[in-house]
Amino acid sequence: MDSYYVYGQSSQQAVPAAYRPSKPEDWEPYHDIIAHLYNTLNMKLKDVMSEMQGTYNFKATSVPYDIPAEKQYKTQLKKWNLDTKYIKASEYMFMIKTMRERQAENPPRETRFVLRGRAVDPKDIARFEKRAQKKGTMRDGDPIECDEPVEDLVYGTPPPEEASYHQAAYADAYAAYQYDPSTDYSADYSADYSYSY
């Protein structure tokens, strides 16, 4: 890999003119950098794109394939198995169903989830559930139809000192969430990022 792609490069170092990938293999020299920004530093995709353009002069464009840059990034993240931060609607539904079943047991049990090696924040589950109810895709008390298990999902009861925190975090997030019907939330939970070059 060329020297100007190394982490911690000096801002005074010369960098090449803006590099625009035109085929899948053009992305490969940037794999480690993108993985570091997106997963290790947990940056949002739009911030990763900005950093790649500003620091590394790497700019995905829609030319010549007429494919938006964000979609190109999402395809690469999926190809490299780096899209672990995205949780599908079906995965949220399965977690909510599991939570309800375990809370209905005697005695009720709190549940903590780990999906694809990452702990799922109970606030995210609460926000998804509240949003689904506002949109009418889920009703409180109605059975959830999702019998197919989720791959790479593990769950269990957190230790007593953590259980109260998770329960409170879920309740707070659920109560505080404000649904904005003018906002398109679908991109965050899309299961399909694929396209062909």
TrEMBL record:
Signal peptide boundaries: none
InterPro entries referenced in this protein's UniProt entry, alphabetically: Clr5_dom (IPR025676)
Comp. bias (Basic and acidic residues): 132-142
Region (Disordered): 132-161
Top-level taxonomic group: Eukaryota
Limits of the Clr5 domain: 24-83
Protein name, entry field: Clr5 domain-containing protein
Organism lineage: Eukaryota, Fungi, Dikarya, Ascomycota, Pezizomycotina
